[in-house]
Amino acid sequence: MNLPASISEARARLADRTLSANELVRAELKAMAAARPLNAFITETPEIALAMAGESDRRLARGEARALEGIPLAIKDLFCTKGVLTTAASHILDGFQPTYESTVTRKLWEAGAILLGKTNLDEFAMGSSNESSHYGPVKSPWRRAGDNRPLTPGGSSGGSAAAVAAGLALGATGTDTGGSIRQPAAVSGVVGLKPTYGRCSRWGIVAFASSLDQAGPFARNVRDAAVLLRSMAGFDPQDSTSADRPVPDYELACERPARGIKVGVPGEYRVAGMPPEIEALWQRGCDWLKAAGAEVVEVSLPHTKYALPAYYIVAPAEASSNLARYDGVRYGLRVPGEDIQQMYEKTRAAGFGCEVRRRVLIGTYVLSAGYYDAYYVKAQKLRRLIKQDFQAAFGRVDAILTPTTPGPAFALGEKADDPIAMYLNDVFTVTANLAGLPGISVPAGLSADGLPLGLQLLGPAFAEETILTLAAELERAASFTARPEPWWRLP
Predict the structure, then answer these.
(1) Residues with catalytic function
(2) Each residue's pLDDT tens digit, 43-53
(3) Contacts of 206 (CB under 8 A, 6+ apart)
(4) Options 3.40.50.10490, 3.30.70.940, 3.90.1300.10, 3.20.20.120; CATH of 7-258+478-489
């Protein structure tokens, strides 16, 4: 059968009964089985998916369809799903089946969505290439022209991005701590939306850096991302950082004109060594928005150059605290020792991968006596200055346009031995997390090697509607229709 190209198309076909949820789920499960060489999923849940599809078909027959009735989704394996293996792609969570459901996934199921499976990611969401997973790297569905080397789908939400790009799910969830939705969306050729900090509940999401983490959707187009966000967002009393604000109908924002919206272009994002094709794409984005009636002006974000070093102090510091709970006592992996301290040491040594250990060590160091003021306090001061830069800029403009990444997808292993080069993949995205702002990446063109490139829009806090309006304009102007060749199906 021909799978729907979008959530919007699927909703229409399900509503007029030319397609059943059971048929749609079976087709997606078949596509997932054929795409196992991508390693996009850690856990597939066909029985659960078919049971949920049956319930959706009964509701559709009764005319009781909910907002996402019958829509099959992939869920990043950082979201706790009741009774379903949840690993954070780490050996230390072997066998962990939560007895509760994360707020975001609960809201999706209450809206009628269907769980296809749990997607692969960088271990504990720490990475930009999906190579730190205990379950092996995800392979991008894309390949460079004339080059068969496997590429990264981006990270940390690489499995979710790859699943949507390869047509294995109509949408997916991700989390974004320093760009982990927007960066994989850009290099995988899909839409990725990071909402304002507090817009989606963090309850039931395995924590990396609590003041930076935010859940958001992946989708094939801007409208689908808006539809997913509306069901994911909302106040949650179980999350002390959750914002008690009404949730707008984000889908309506995709139809609004961009005329009169002021868009800033920050000169500080023109980093040394930026490839000409990224600069050219950025300029095309400016031209597209001008043609749509938006006003494009230069703005300054003077502390941008400090964002990456500040992020890589704050995030590991919070990670070292959050990951202290993994000790082999209550759940997951346990490696016996002669006493409890040795059990802790052996469990954590065996359970955590190299990148997680690196970040825990950095975080513990910057929080230690004698270094707390020199590093962590200074990074927090810089974070405040970065936020103030954005506040000043948003006094003049309604949104900011930048590239999403400094280049297209790179080959697996290409940067694995150079952590600094890997961290630089987040150079355009970490600022939004430090300031708690919403951002969206829209596929806007192809590199010289035929790989996707994305443009990023950032907005003031809770201005998701504004960036969705502009993103829809970019999407229409870019007319990005490229799809990866399904090399994974070949013998």
Answers:
(1) 76, 156, 180
(2) 999 999 999 99
(3) 78, 79, 80, 86, 88, 93, 124, 125
(4) 3.90.1300.10
